[in-house]
């Protein structure tokens, strides 16, 4: 079967051109929301390594709380979005995200003002740490809601009825905005930390969210009110749009599959707990819970392997994340250099948003993913090689170089998988699948931080590098298996042979 036959054939009907000013408002609103999130993402590891020096313990503990919250509640966020109107999601998302970052910024200031607080007042120290962790986790959950709303819902709805290239273009621009924030937010924050103070950077985070929340809402609300397609789609949403009612309109084969699974679950519960009605009732309640139904919806999709492959890439310290940032600072790399390194990494990632549309047009979405994930794997070989470099500074710079170079493949692969999900997942399942996908990604992110807790000595960071590299290898193989299942081959060896003969 051809890969093109697996993609849905959209029947485009004429739509009035989209007002450019509305698209600009969408992009600017998204930029403002992502900037605050990227500021926190970069600086939280630096805050934690200063709160508890010479150990990755606090940084890893925060990562565990953040990732665990998304792993557990990600599917529920997707279902809540499915059952809520767009204006409701927009309001709750922006209020929760910005308020959480404000609280996090204030509590971090409290921790940094009194560096000896963990010794002089354990109760106050514990309270501030708990508040920082919980507010950061809540901010990430609300950011997830915004990501699903903008990237998985609005972009698709806005592009419907227009040229098929519009979806690819909007996906690339939205990802480009995120990477621009990933570029400049750490640079700005790094300079504030290096030339002013950590306290000033935490205060600036809180001030940014206080000032920008009103502008974010005004811009994104104007997009909703200005595009009739969003208003029409929002009217169809609400409490009645549950997963169960949505799947009543699914294909007969899917319905039969779900029915068989339901009977299998009941049979299993009866076999296991035939003598215990309380256990049987508990098993039935669990198997029919919204959490399990969301996973069933996800596992029925054709894009499971690409989704899991993308999620495995989150089990890594080979990014300018909390653990690697804290380790680089421990190695003596200046914070502003780390910020600039992260910025260069983001520039390379931004180039992926220009490369992807061209590759997708020339070699298809599927093959773009194949080439990109293996190019990421090849660049990370530099990081593995840095382990055996004796000079710590040189090793650190090689590590940063390998990570930065790999971003081209990573973000191209990310765009490829997102577009496969947009094309192949039905409208009724889109938010649920997005929630579960982010939950899986956060689970592997959680595993990274658990590894950081187990291997908390920065001197042993090389062990985390090797584990991360092997996970990227497994992800690359899994996606290759998916490509082979769909296309029945990986490469056109005859064309490669002809190219080789021409070169010779």
UniProtKB/TrEMBL annotation:
Q: Can you tell which superkingdom this protein's organism belongs to? A: Eukaryota
Span-the-membrane segments of this chain are 57-78, 90-113, 125-150, 179-200, 206-227, 303-327, 333-356, 368-389, 461-481
Question: What does the similarity note say?
Answer: Belongs to the major facilitator superfamily. Phosphate:H(+) symporter (TC 2.A.1.9) family.
Entry membrane topology: Multi-pass membrane protein
Please provide the record's keywords in A-Z order: Ion transport, Membrane, Transmembrane, Transmembrane helix, Transport
Protein name from the UniProt record: Solute carrier family 40 member
Which GO-annotated molecular functions does the record name? iron ion transmembrane transporter activity
So what does this one do?
May be involved in iron transport and iron homeostasis.
**Where in this protein does the record put region Disordered?**
235-256
Q: Which Pfam families match?
A: FPN1 (PF06963)
Which PANTHER family does UniProt cross-reference here?
A: SOLUTE CARRIER FAMILY 40 MEMBER
Q: Which GO terms describe its cellular component?
A: membrane
The subcellular location is: Membrane
Main localisation: membrane
Family matches, as Gene3D superfamilies: MFS general substrate transporter like domains
């Amino acid at each position: 079967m051809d890969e093109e036959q697996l993609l849905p054939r959209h029947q485009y009907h004429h739509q009035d051109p989209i007002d450019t000013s509305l698209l600009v408002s969408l992009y600017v609103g998204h930029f403002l929301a992502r900037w605050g999130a990227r500021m926190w993402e970069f600086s939280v590891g630096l805050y934690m390594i200063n709160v508890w020096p010479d150990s990755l313990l606090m940084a890893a503990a925060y990562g565990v709380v953040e990732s665990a919250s998304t792993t557990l509640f990600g599917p529920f966020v997707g279902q809540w979005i499915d059952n809520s109107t767009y204006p409701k999601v927009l309001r709750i998302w922006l209020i929760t995200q910005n308020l959480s970052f404000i609280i996090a910024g204030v509590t971090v200031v409290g921790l940094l003002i009194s560096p000896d607080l963990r010794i002089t007042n354990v109760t106050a120290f514990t309270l501030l740490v708990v508040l920082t962790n919980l507010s950061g986790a809540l901010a990430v959950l609300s950011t997830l809601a915004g990501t699903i709303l903008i990237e998985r819902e609005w972009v698709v709805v806005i592009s419907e009825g227009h040229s098929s290239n519009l979806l690819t273009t909007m996906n690339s621009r939205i990802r480009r905005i995120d990477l621009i924030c990933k570029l400049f937010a750490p640079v700005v924050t790094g300079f504030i930390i290096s030339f002013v103070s950590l306290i000033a950077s935490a205060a600036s985070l809180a001030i940014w969210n206080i000032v920008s929340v009103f502008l974010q809402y005004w811009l994104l609300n104007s997009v909703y009110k200005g595009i009739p397609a969003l208003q029409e789609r929002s009217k169809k949403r609400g409490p009645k749009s549950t997963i169960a009612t949505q799947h009543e309109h699914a294909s007969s084969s899917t319905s039969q599959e779900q029915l068989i699974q339901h009977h299998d679950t009941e049979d299993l519960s009866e076999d296991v707990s035939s003598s215990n009605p309380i256990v049987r009732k508990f098993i039935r309640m669990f198997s029919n819970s919204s959490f399990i139904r969301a996973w069933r919806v996800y596992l029925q999709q054709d894009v499971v392997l690409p989704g899991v492959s993308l999620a495995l890439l989150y089990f890594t310290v080979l990014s300018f994340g909390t653990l690697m940032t804290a380790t680089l600072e421990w190695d003596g790399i200046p914070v502003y250099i780390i910020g600039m390194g992260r910025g260069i990494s983001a520039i390379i990632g931004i180039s992926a948003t220009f490369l992807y549309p061209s590759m997708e047009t020339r070699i298809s979405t599927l093959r773009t993913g194949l080439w990109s994930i293996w190019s990421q794997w090849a660049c990370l070989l530099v990081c593995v090689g840095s382990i055996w470099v004796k000079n710590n500074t040189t090793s650190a710079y090689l590590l940063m170089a390998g990570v930065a170079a790999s971003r081209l493949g990573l973000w191209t692969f990310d765009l490829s998988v997102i577009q496969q999900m947009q094309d192949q997942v039905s409208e009724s399942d889109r938010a649920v699948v997005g929630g579960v996908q982010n939950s899986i990604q956060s689970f592997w992110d959680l595993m990274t931080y658990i590894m950081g807790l187990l291997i908390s000595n920065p001197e042993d960071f090389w062990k985390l590098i090797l584990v991360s590299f092997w996970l990227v290898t497994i992800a690359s193989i899994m996606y290759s298996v998916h490509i082979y299942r769909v296309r029945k081959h990986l490469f056109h060896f005859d064309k490669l042979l002809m190219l080789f003969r021409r070169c010779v």
